[in-house]
């Protein structure tokens, strides 16, 4: 299998208006693709459909050979989406949040502490996530991605709210995914460092407009 993500005529509409329209995209296993576009261009919707958080309205798609609609549970076990709002339970501590994720995906709970260490949150492991700043919540979401080591990593505006050091963490995470042969779809209106991605596509009004090899 050479294709990690295949979308054919994919459309996702909300109240009759298409956020993603007749989109065709193929991403190879091990490929890192940057999806550029302004706010409202459809980038977030695209990633949510690939993550199975949203279902296609029309068209079809697959992730690692599994159908986006029929095989949602299987796909979710192999995909990690880091979106605008980090998924964390406010009443749980940082380490409790990650241990809960471990329980959901059948991972050893011992992975939680090293993941927090990796993103610079070891000293606040026992602090409730509800007291974290936006940047700290983003770091916690990065720790979740580090811990899960997904086959397909989806990053939606991952630089938002991060300082320079945390931005480097994001790019290190992408580098490590490349080295493991994993696939990354990075949606951002900010350019990552040169050489990080293999290919760039651009979205405008829900459609792919252009494509360039990096």
General description of the model:
The chain has one domain (3-213): P-loop containing nucleotide triphosphate hydrolases (Rossmann fold, 3-Layer(aba) Sandwich), CATH 3.40.50. The protein starts with a strand and ends with a strand. It is built from 6 helices and 10 strands, in the order βββαββαβαααβαβββ. It has a 6-stranded mixed beta sheet, sandwiched between helices. A 4-stranded antiparallel beta sheet has the order 2-1-4-5. The chain is 29% helix and 30% strand. The protein has 214 residues and is α/β, with parallel strands linked by helices. Helix 3 (94-105) packs parallel to helix 5 (134-148) and helix 5 (134-148) runs parallel beside helix 6. The longest helix is centred in the C-terminal third of the chain and has 16 residues, at 164-179.
Write the layout of secondary structure elements.
Elements: E1 3-14, E2 17-28, E3 32-36, H1 43-50, E4 58-63, E5 66-67, H2 72-76, E6 79-82, H3 94-105, H4 112-118, H5 134-148, E7 152-156, H6 164-179, E8 183-187, E9 199-204, E10 207-213
Parallel strand pairs: 3-8, 3-9, 6-7, 7-8
Antiparallel strand pairs: 1-2, 1-4, 4-5, 9-10
Helix pairs in contact: 3-5, 4-5, 5-6
